[in-house]
Amino acid sequence: MTSAPATLEREIQRVGLALSEAFPSHRGNPLKALDDRAMELAAQDAKLRAALFRFVDVVPACRSLDDLAAHLASFLEQVHTQPPSLRAAMRMGDTKAGRTALGAAGAAGVRHMAHRFIVGEDPKAALTTLRHLWRDGIAASVDLLGEATVSAEEADRYAARCADALETLAAAYARMDGQPQLERDASGPLPRANLSVKVSALTPLLRPEAPERGQRDAAPRLRALLRQAKELDAHLHIDMESLDSREAVLELVLDLLAEPEFADGPSAGVVLQAYLRDSPQTLDTILDWAQRTPRAQPLVVRLVKGAYWDHEVVEARQHGWSVPVFERKADYDANFEALTARLLAARPLVRVAIASHNLRSVAHAIACNRMLGANAGDVEFQVLRGLGDDLGQALAANGLRVRAYCPVGDLVAGMAYLVRRLLENTANESFLADQAHGVPLEQLLAAPEAPA
Amino acid sequence: MSTPAPFANEPVLELRRATERSKLAVGLGELRLPLKVPVWIGRERRFGEELVSTDPGRPERVVAVAARATREEAGAAVASARAAFPSWAATPVAERAAALLRAAAWMRERRASLAALAVRECAKPWSEADADVCEAIDFLEFYARGALELQGGASPVPAGAQLLQVPGERNALRYAPRGVCAVIAPWNFPLAIPTGMTAAALATGNTVVLKPAEQAPGCGLRVVEALRAGGVPADAIALLPGEGDAGAALARNPDVATIAFTGSGAVGLELLRAAAEVAPGARQLTRVVAEMGGKNCIVVDSDADLDEAIPAIVDSAFHYAGQKCSAASRVLVHEALHDGLVERLAGAVAGLQVGPADDFATDVPPLIERAAQERVERYAAIAAETGEIVTGAHDVPAEGWYVAPIVATGLPQDSRVLREEIFGPLLTVEPVGDVDEAMDRIDALPVALTGGLFSRNPRTVQRVIDRSPVGNLYINRSTTGAMVGRQPFGGNRLSGTGTKAGGHDYLLHFVEPRVVTENTVRHGLVV
Q1: What ipTM was assigned to the predicted interfaces of this complex?
Q2: Which of chain A's termini has less CB crowding within 10 Å, N or C?
Q3: Which domains does chain A have, with CATH numbers?
């Protein structure tokens, strides 16, 4: 007789293999698809990586090609072991004509990279991509990139952009053909239009030591968006950011959704970050709330690893605090699986979205779902536009419900997002990097070793 | 005693967690006011009611009732410290250091109540009050270790004490304490700064007379209690609550070997003058360690990320209502970004909450006293008259020494608002053609304490580093919050004596070097 874990493990391997075979072969793996050798170089050399990302970061702030080239040359000066291609670039920086050419090449490279991750300057411009995705059996969640919100006017502007995006998305999706796989699960119908919003953009007053202040200020703007989403039958997902704002964001969202007017809609969701050591307790909070707060459309919980790992580690170390995130990949991977199992078992109290590019984590969720006897469509998988495209296609091809997280915004606003994604995915522990470097499938699918 | 573990900063409370915030609230609830603060010389305590500190946010709430030291008491305190000096100086440095470490432990056990006192007496908002307690602990821990290194005979010999040795002679340098140190402390870091200056003097074997700021005698009392509880002999540390005349009396006393001062430029210069005057009967030149004001500028180049620069500027200028020596008071921004920065900054400032220090949500607490409020309002009037105030009206509590945060632009370069230290929530913004023009303006100032730069070009960063005269330059971050051991703090030019609190060479200002050279040749033989 085989034990349950062994059965699950076999199922994970089977699912993982099926998925990997469904990866589109024509494009190779996602990192190579960036067709930018710089990324490959960057992953190998920390100094070069820093120089390139600092360059990407500053591109929108440069006033001319000359200025751009001056920055590029200035960053590259700090890289001691320069590959020949970079030495050539440095020499170009010595003349005005060279700088113009170098600046133009640099700007084009960054724009090219940005377009892989950012689907359009505004929601209207993004519609073509969103339609293509939908036709291919992939839903989307649109995220409006923007400058940081430092004033009430900026918070109002962001809220207005969100309102406009909800209108645009609802109208556009209404005209698309039916995709039964994307529009219903065991809990009922799923909205087509889906917008992700950030509380830090809805208020300039998020203060870690006074969460109620940002909550108070963001509440009217978020409430208005919830009302609009309800009216348009759109889904509103509230993103999670760094730990500094977690208490403010989670409390705010759960409080608002508990208001009587939102009991019968809209569909809404929160995010659970598996890299946080206390994420199991956060899940307790969410599930307790869901138990107490009956909703026509269950709260969607998007499970992610978390995108602020460096920030959390640096902040904790600078202040002498215990580090709030798991520092070993195996530990947060194991926690991700534990939270996946709990979330899937908690249905129909909540809906579950698994947002990961890690083939093992995804295969684990699919296998768990099967073993619980649920339908394939009763769990959602989310991927990032530009990084998880191939995985998304492979999942869709296997009959799973997929949603792509699609950032929308101009290059200036998008740069912070772009840099974060690039850093995250050239990190040594990145699953995508492993995959790109040809780590064997068995290793990619291996169970995270038990926490130390 | 065994060698202490390597220095590490005392972690501030993780106030983003509700459990930590409630600890501080408990500390406030347990605070019994008013405190009674005596003139405390040796074991003698004289209580009095001549000096009263009140809550700047609720002036009718009395925080401490103190005796005001007379000139005679200042003299008695110095005489007592003078008498205690030989014995404390002869106490092994390991024992002195151990006393300081025990004082740190005493404070650590009382973190919440000490922070609460700083909240009440000086209107330090919670996170800053907590940081002030941590910094006080840091100074005790840091200087205890520093003294062990400097005077402990530990090997290797401190770099400054390494001498050339040639055959036939033995050269040795040691650092002896100087004598009585008068510590004249400010109210804006009411625990950390008096603790720091006092700890430096005591650790190296000096005895101390501490005169806390008249606005903060309660905090001064706690500093002395901590040190005595830690085992510093009563005679080695006297508490002299008082006003300017007590400080002046200390400065003119020929038995004061060192004056350690943090405060305004005017008082600092007066102390330097008084110290330069060799009084009849003086047997020592008085050394002054002075930390005075600044006119701190932040330069924003055209490639700066305003998403990061604006919050950092707001923090630097308005936290603790701009009442830090390190606070930013001028922004010099590349003309290409000027209008956008002013608009966003004004919007950010409009959202700041002006309120009592004990509210976790407060951004801008009241100023320390009515005179400070009036001073800032005078500068605001000049700014309104000769420039433009871009921030609007603010909700400000009616009672208490509140001033709404102000951003002013368009001031003439010779404006007093651009040259004088305001020490309040008033920030000016001016456009510059480029970073070099900004550095020319900064170079024209007579003070040089802190500075800031926002730029993403490493070459620009280097150019500003090369040209910057300030004691503490911060790149792409806020200009306040120097940490012991990480950002040794102190200014140049008329901002101070170039001494660096929380740095490895700070203790050298509290000692005198003595060199002994012994001839080891006898009858032509090296013995």
Answers
A1: 0.94
A2: N
A3: 34-114 (no CATH), 119-415 (3.20.20.220)
